[in-house]
Amino acid sequence: MSHATIRATIIPEIVKLICQDRKVDEKTALDMFYTSATGASYADDDTGLYGQSALFVYSLFDKEMKEKQ
Predict the structure, then answer these.
(1) Rounded-to-integer distance, Cα 63 and Cα 65, Å
(2) Regions of the chain short of the pLDDT cut 50
(3) For a Cys-Cys bond, which of 36, 43, 45, 54 suits 13, CB 3.0-4.6 Å?
(4) Sign of dihedral through CA atoms 15, 20, 22, 24?
């Protein structure tokens, strides 16, 4: 399975978690994720992050957001 296919499968799960935990709509959640360092790392094939679970990637995103506060 290609990395793009894997990401396309996992991203909706990550967005759902962001929506639930942050009480935001899907567009806002997507924007938050894609403008984060975690989102940039997830898009980079060299990091291997695409092979991790949605919960793991979300936990990295959540930690990043908490550190920004």
Answers:
(1) 5
(2) none
(3) 54
(4) positive
Residue-level pLDDT at 39: 96
* Residue with token string 């991203």: 11
Total count of residues recorded for the chain: 69
pTM exceeding the 0.85 threshold for the entire prediction: yes
The Cα diameter of the chain in Å comes to: 37
Whole-angstrom Cα distance, residue 12 to residue 41? 17
* Cα–Cα dist 51/30, whole Å: 19
Query: How many other C-beta atoms lie within 10 A of the C-beta of residue 51?
Result: 12
Q: Which DSSP string corresponds to 30-64?
A: HHHHHTSHHHHHHH-GGG-GGGS-HHHHHHHHHHH
41 near 22, Cβ under 8 Å? no
